[in-house]
Amino acid sequence: MPPKSSSGNEKDIAEEDEVLQAVILADSFNKRFKPLTVGKPRCLLPICNATLLDWTFESLALAGVQEIFVICRSYADQVKAAIRDSKWSKPSTGLKIVPIVTAKETFSPGDAMRDIYTHQIITSDFVLVTGDLVSNVRIDEVVRVHKERRRTNKDAIMTMVVKESGATHRTRSRGESGVYVLDPNTHECLHYEPVVGYPATSRVTMPREILAEHPEVEVRYDFIDCSIDVCSVEVPSLFQDNFDYGDIRRDFVYGVLTSDLLMKSVHCYVVKDGYAARVADTRSYDAVSKDILSRWTFPLVPDDNHPGGHQYEHLRGNKYIAKDNSVSLSRTCKIGNNTLIGSHTTISANASVHASVIGQRCTIGPGAILRDAYIFDDTHVGAGAVVEGSIVGARVTLGDGCRVPRGCLIADSVAIGANAKLRKFERVSKKREARPQAAGDGSDGDDEEDSDSELEEVEANQEDAAQIIGRDSNALVWPHPSPDDDEELDERESFYNQRLMRIGDTASDLELSDGGSTTSASETETESDFSGMHGLSRTSSATSASGPLSSAVDPSAETSAIHTLSSAAAETEFRSEVAQSLERAFAEGHSVDNAAVELKTLRMASNVPLRRVREAVVGAIVDRVPLVPGDAAAQRAEIAKIVRRWGPLVDKIGGVDPVETVEVLQYHCAAAGPRLPLFAQVLAQLYQQDLVEEEDIRAWHASPAARGEGVKPGSALLEGLKKCWAIGAKMIEQFESEEEEESEEESEEESADEKPAREAPAAKPPAKEDESESEEESDEESGSEESEDAPATAKPTAPKAAAVSSSSSQTSKPAQTESEDSETDEGSDEFVSGEEEVSAEAPAKPTTPAATVSSAPSAAPAKAAAESSDESEEDE
Amino acid sequence: MSAQTQSGDFDIYATFQQFLQDEEISPPLAAISALAEAIVRSNAGTMFELVQALNDGAEELKRRSPNPISLNAGCELFIAFVTLFPHESDNFAELKKELEQQGRKYAAEALTFRDKIAELALGFIKDDSVILTHSHSRVVLKALLHAHKTKRISVYVTESRPRGLGLKTYETLTAAGIPCTVVLDSAVAYVMDRVDFVLVGSEAVVESGGLINYVGSNQMAIIAKAANKPFYALAESYKFHRLFPLSQYDLPTHNPNILSFPTPIGRSAGTDDAPSTSTPDIITKQPARLGTSSSSTERAMNQEQIAKNPGVDYTRPDLISLVFSDVGILTPEGVSQYLVGMFAG
Amino acid sequence: MAPDPTPIPGHKAVETLVAKLRRRQIVGSRQAALETVLVLRQVVSKARFSNIQQLIVIIREAGRRLVEAQPKEHTVGNTVRRVLHNIREEYHSAVKVSAPTSSRNVYTISKFVLQGQPRKQTVGAPKSETTATLKEDDPDDPDSFARGIKPILMEAIQDVLDELETVYDNVSKTAKDHIHSDEIILTIGHSRTVEAFLKSAGHTRNYTVIVAETAPSYSGHDMARALSAAGISTFLVPDSSIYAIMSRVNKIILGAHAILANGGLVAITGSLLAATAARAHSTPVVVCAGQFKLTPLWNLYHDYGALDFADPSSVLGFEEGKLVERVDVVNPYYDYVGPELVDVFITNDGDHPPSSVYRLIKETYDDDDHEL
């Protein structure tokens, strides 16, 4: 029995804040229950003769929730009606239930959350559940803990309720689950990786610094995700900011935990006593029903606190018979264990019922056999019919002697002819009347015409239907899903994975290696070094998990695939956004910090790698410099002004990486022809502002990127790069010389200024030349930027470059990388995305120019160096 | 005197018998009705005389009926009622009328008692239960048939020698569609483990809380106790009998003849001092009977042998789980308290 | 739900209690009883009625809702019956019935038969000497009756409340007469009543208590903790060893969830085991319980003791995934202990043998309230 304390809890919650709010997502955004959910939302499907919604309300009422918002999308009117008529809307229940209808184009929980945000209904921490929850967990307790935590740590935005269970528990979804990495002391969820059942996710990675920061770490794969989340007010706004967050676990939690910007933390509440599970698919429907019947949900059991308000008598062996003596059992019928029989139901002679749930006003014909069957209200099962492991809707008529084998779903008011023999996993729904189906399709993500077309397509192939469903039947037989028709589907919905969620499907033929989470040392090694540099980045998981075998399977790769499209848009949008915001910043003279914040949020919103931001900023700064041709001093002054003012921004955008900064600068200047000469001075300024250290410059100079490797030869960009590189080289020389004579430094600067302009032609040959030698390496470890920017070099104008690099970044997106280690699989991505001609022909082509020109340029670098040096003499 | 003469031409026993013709009427009620009749007939002028007359009538009935116990209960009840009836009325004739009305009224409404009891018992009869009952009792039948409407029950009924009334029960139940099997009285112990509880009617419920019922009930109760099965008795409140038997032999039905041993023939020939009327006709009849019975392949008791057997027996209160009556469900203790409450006024 | 003419006053209060009962947020016989009285008091105070019948109808209605909400908390029903009983008594004593309602024509044989009902002989003298100015169904002022009688009725309810509040003390009044020095007492489960009883005995006597741990709820642990804290020498033993140690036990003391009309009782699981073991060693079995636990019901579950089944998780961890699918776990919460196994009930109103429970119930409640 639940502890007395509960009532107490309610009180102190009540006093420590106004009302406890809850949000129910009454739509499931998938089509697992079709065709049962044709013409009816899933949350109104009955389980143990009470609608899922009622169970959910009861669970919440148990926790002393006072205000409930029900987010309903499909068949909203039905849901509303149901709520209005239910006992819950009576004032005496002390519940305030507000149905909220969201737009038809709400396709994911994420969209729903955004809706909540726009409605501005949430005033405090709230409980977020799905409309198919069955739970007796003391959620109020969870809320208390959550608030407790919030007091000390504002960043703990969410507490997920999870229930311990074996990895192979009937109630635990085999199709989609997750690996949780917890800190056993604080119960903070350090990492979360979604896992699909088939093809079995074989490896899961977690960033190494988790191990570094937390001496003790639990990696759990035995949790049932109750989908009860206690969220703080920020959560909906976070969804708002990241419009690509779809699923709450796969996207939101994963995103929050792996983002180096949000700095939010998510916690888990591991339920010790109490039961909670959601009816996410037909399989869990079966499991949860069984759990209810065998009283795991106590006191939420039919004979005690039935949410539908029915009265049942509990007999030995967990048999529940409606109390009001209205059930008529024939003397010879057999009622097995774990059965529930609704009122006014008749069970005729010799019928046998085992582990089944029968609704109200049903008639079970003589000699009928029901095993693991779920029969909704007002259904007639003919004499001698056999129903096994199936769900039969309301007002259905099963003809005499017809067979319904494992896994069938029969929609409402279907009539199946006598002696019909359904195949396993048959899905049958009622033929539509002439009028096009009115309300949008049930709990799947499609909108109406979509589902209509679906039905039509179903109607299309009915040729074999007749002998399946027997004569005088009004049924449509749905085509069996097959592995090949789901390429476009999110793989969670893929056929094989769905099989794991199907009622009565043992899926024993699928091999499901629960590889568990394997993190090979080496990978975590390398990746975490880099991710160390830029906080925790998706790179880590991407690199290690996308092995040759599991790359397709890898969850993160998969999620990123989802992102790819949206991110393209995000990129371009981001570009302009940044440009504008900086424009504003410069114009209105914001403080650097403000500008930085703005950028951060921007980046968060469109989720781009740090490098893009840096590019944008550096670019903006350089473009900012007014050109003062001729007058070197004035020019320098200008630059100094700008850089002094805005330089710091470069490091404020999150993650300090001078080397990259220089590189970015180089590329920008190189790309933007007219500003090429500014490179040296800007670099110098950065150096003076200590934004760039000497060794940074050396590092940059040494880097292959700096030498413009992988860039299409002969392009203007390349030349630019070369020049800049040369300047860099010169600068470094100065660093050597600096020790003895500081005085030169000055002159160095100006000399540096004039140089590039004149040197432009001179520097060309060397470029070609050392490019050619660089080609060899370029294939195996060519930096993503180079390989992709290559096509751009055709027209190296600033805007174009931007556009291109955005496209590039989209391909580079999967890894979400800003760290070099990821380039390897970047590379592999390239091959996939058909850009190999770049990297492929790269080695081939240059050979000719290399051959032709190589003789000339050999001296060039020296000469260039010489010139520059002696000119510097001249100046003095 | 006058009372005597009056009751002379009015044969109370005959009236009693004709009341008893009605299937529904049980002896106590018939007795009450008869006594009510007697009131009308009697020309008693005072309360004392009236009570006197009634007592005589009761005596008459008791004397002439073979098994007076249950009708005793009825008489007792009625007479006690009459004596305790608050009579501040001036006109004695009216009082007599009043009393007579009361008697008939009660006899009438008493017919509904069985339904009440059946309703009470329903709560104890669970779906799919197997019930053992004894002999033939209207109230038990009523309860079973009532339960049959909503519950799936099956019944074992004892043959209940020598009158074999169990068969009558069997026919009624089978006609109603209740699966029913007749078992030998001697098979009660054998069948006991199969049954969920025992349900018996009663001749009378006595002050000790014990039960007087058709012979065989006692052993049934003992076996039920041994098997830890509940033993329920159904008794209308007019069967509450102010009697405190301590053993089987305290019952009014017990006479020396019952269980008596025949005196050896040789001795009786020598000494013919036997005063008892019974012994000689035993001697005379016995040989013949024995002859016939011995000739028949299947042996059965003859009348004499049966006559030596009790018709009813007494079941101790500690063997009874509960007594269902129209005044509610009572524990045996409850019954005794009840009787005290009734007759202590 | 509510009778259409008069919707239950204090409907809200009733409904909230109903919800709490359904959700098992109120458990334990005493707490349930207390809550019920409080709600009923509200109901009566809010009720508008012009004669006693109306009031009784109202109370019955409220009571029925409560009982239906949680039939397994018997004390709810008991309290309602108790309140009804007291109210009637008060009413009768207040409205000193002018004449025994012209017995002449109503006095029939069946009435006569009903005299058999055991009754409380001593009808308590009217608490307040409100003269018989109470006029029922006063046409011009329908509320006058209510106004007149409410204070008395409130008192009546207050009595029930007081009884509940003092029940532990009153039960343990006689503790030291039942427990003697150097005795070994065995108890099971954690009954507040028993705890109070043993503690109060502990003041004067020096004895030993053996507590069975009472799986799967392990409430025995709490009991042991409480007793040892009170300085009573305490042993904690597994339930399985009850029989073995019984030979050394002088007395076993049980708490009760409800006392049934036949003198049997419903008590925490394990009680039956203990009582049977005690019987085998003919060790006296003592039951401590307040009279509010007297329930005018019969055990209809003679074939298996418990009438309430808790969740299996305390027996088998939910995480035992594989097992959960294969076995049906049953976790009865109560035992039914038959009257033949009990020697005496120690109540807040004297000690009684099982056989007299029947009479007590007849005295405490009115028959026509048994079915609410």
From TrEMBL, chain A:
One of its GO terms (cellular component) is cytosol. It is found in: Cytoplasm, Cytosol. Keywords: Cytoplasm, Transferase. It comes from the Eukaryota. The keyword Lyase does not apply. Residues 540-552, 790-817, 840-867 have a biased composition (Low complexity). InterPro entries: ARM-type_fold, eIF-2B_epsilon_N, eIF2B_epsilon, LbH_EIF2B3/5, NTP_transferase_dom, Nucleotide-diphossugar_trans, W2_domain, W2_eIF2B_epsilon. Residues 568-745 form the W2 domain. PANTHER family: TRANSLATION INITIATION FACTOR EIF-2B SUBUNIT EPSILON. Belongs to the eIF-2B gamma/epsilon subunits family. This is Translation initiation factor eIF2B subunit epsilon.
Automatic annotation (TrEMBL), chain B:
The keyword Nucleotide-binding does not apply. Keywords: Cytoplasm, Initiation factor, Protein biosynthesis, Transferase. The keyword Transferase applies. It holds the Pfam family IF-2B. Residues 265-302 are annotated as: Disordered. One of its GO terms (molecular function) is transferase activity. One of its GO terms (cellular component) is eukaryotic translation initiation factor 2B complex. Residues 291-302 have a biased composition (Polar residues). It is found in: Cytoplasm, Cytosol. SUPFAM superfamilies: NagB/RpiA/CoA transferase-like (SSF100950). Its main location: cytoplasm. It comes from the Eukaryota. PANTHER family: TRANSLATION INITIATION FACTOR EIF-2B SUBUNIT ALPHA (PTHR45860). Component of the translation initiation factor 2B (eIF2B) complex which is a heterodecamer of two sets of five different subunits: alpha, beta, gamma, delta and epsilon. Subunits alpha, beta and delta comprise a regulatory subcomplex and subunits epsilon and gamma comprise a catalytic subcomplex. Within the complex, the hexameric regulatory complex resides at the center, with the two heterodimeric catalytic subcomplexes bound on opposite sides. Belongs to the eIF-2B alpha/beta/delta subunits family. This is Translation initiation factor eIF2B subunit alpha. It comes from Dichomitus squalens. The lineage of its organism: Eukaryota, Fungi, Dikarya, Basidiomycota, Agaricomycotina.
TrEMBL record, chain C:
It is found in: Cytoplasm, Cytosol. InterPro entries: eIF2B_beta_subunit (IPR051855), IF-2B-related (IPR000649), IF_2B-like_C (IPR042529), NagB/RpiA_transferase-like (IPR037171). GO terms for cellular component: cytosol; eukaryotic translation initiation factor 2B complex. It comes from the Eukaryota. GO terms for molecular function: guanyl-nucleotide exchange factor activity; translation initiation factor activity. SUPFAM superfamilies: NagB/RpiA/CoA transferase-like. Transmembrane segments: none annotated. Keywords: Cytoplasm, Initiation factor, Protein biosynthesis. Component of the translation initiation factor 2B (eIF2B) complex which is a heterodecamer of two sets of five different subunits: alpha, beta, gamma, delta and epsilon. Subunits alpha, beta and delta comprise a regulatory subcomplex and subunits epsilon and gamma comprise a catalytic subcomplex. Within the complex, the hexameric regulatory complex resides at the center, with the two heterodimeric catalytic subcomplexes bound on opposite sides. Belongs to the eIF-2B alpha/beta/delta subunits family. This is Translation initiation factor eIF2B subunit beta. The lineage of its organism: Eukaryota, Fungi, Dikarya, Basidiomycota, Agaricomycotina.
